[in-house]
Amino acid sequence: MNELEQPGETTVEATPQEKPPVPIYTYILIGSIGLVFLAQLVFGDAGQTFSLLAIVGDERSAVAAGFVKPLFLHNHEYWRILTGAAVHGGVLHVVMNCYAFLMFGRLCEMLSNRAHMAIVFLLSCIGGGLLSLYFLPNVTSVGASGGIVGLLGYITVYAFRRRRFIAPEFRKSLLINIGFLFVFGLVLYNVVDNFGHIGGLLTGLIYGLVQIPSNEYVDPRQTRPFVKVLGGIAVGIFVATSILAFLLIINFRNTTIPEISDAARPSSSAR
């Protein structure tokens, strides 16, 4: 996912006396991605992609733990739809995604609730992966872009449903970010998984439409206990998935990369 325009500070609904919450879940999820990329640097091919132009290149890690769709479909390796979100194609790819994740994840935890942030991210990773699977069944995809774009979709619904409290400039910046995302995808269509982005965005939009109250005076930060539990479970699932990806990459270090298909090459992002 490319670096997106950072939303302004005028979006905070909290009173001046309130301190923004520490984005604990955002830090944990980004840390999980960082752990996997550490394995890619040491045991994969990511260490060979330090060029600023390197978006893809770690084929070894992509085959070990990426969303290799033929293996997902025919070998029933269903965990790949999530481990693929933890794997990235190179240094530039992981830096851009983690920066965007920090911006949108932190904002989501502040405006809504950290539980919803985690749920949206996980569901959007899956939703983006499924749409990519349908349209690009022979292409290997890597990256957390789908989940991050899902957060963008969720925040966009939030901004328009609570327009009384959100500055028009912020709503405009969100639409610009969405437009830039798709322009970026069209320009780099040969390496960007646009269907992963679209699926993630749609998942975040749908979740926001269902969860964010249409009544502007109902605080969306108030969450039922079972939703908080689901949020914790969502974080736990991605952390466990990242640990699995870490182990798969380590164990794959002495393995010869198999020929899956001519089309099964890593795209720059997924979901």
Fold and architecture overview:
The protein is mainly alpha-helical. It has ten helices and two strands. It has a two-stranded parallel sheet with strand order 1-2. α1 runs antiparallel to α5 and α4 (80-86) packs across α10. The longest helix is centred in the last third of the chain and has 27 residues, at 225-251. The chain is globular and about 55 Å long. 51% of the residues are buried. The model is unreliable at 2-6, 8-12, 49-54 and 260-271 (pLDDT under 50).
What are the salient characteristics of this protein?
mainly alpha, 61% helix, globular
Low-confidence stretches: 2-6, 8-12, 49-54, 260-271
Sheet-strand content, in percent, reads: under 5%
Could you report the average pLDDT, rounded to the nearest whole number?
85
Q: Total helix count?
A: 10
**Biggest sheet layout:** 2 strands, parallel
Number of strands: 2
Q: Report the radius of gyration as a whole number of Å.
A: 18 Å
One letter per element, helices H and strands E, the order comes to HHHHHHEHHHHE
Q: Structural class of the helix and strand makeup?
A: mainly alpha
C-alpha end-to-end distance: 10 Å
- Main sheet: strand order: 1-2
Can you give the helix content as a percent range?
Answer: 55-70%
CA-based shape = globular
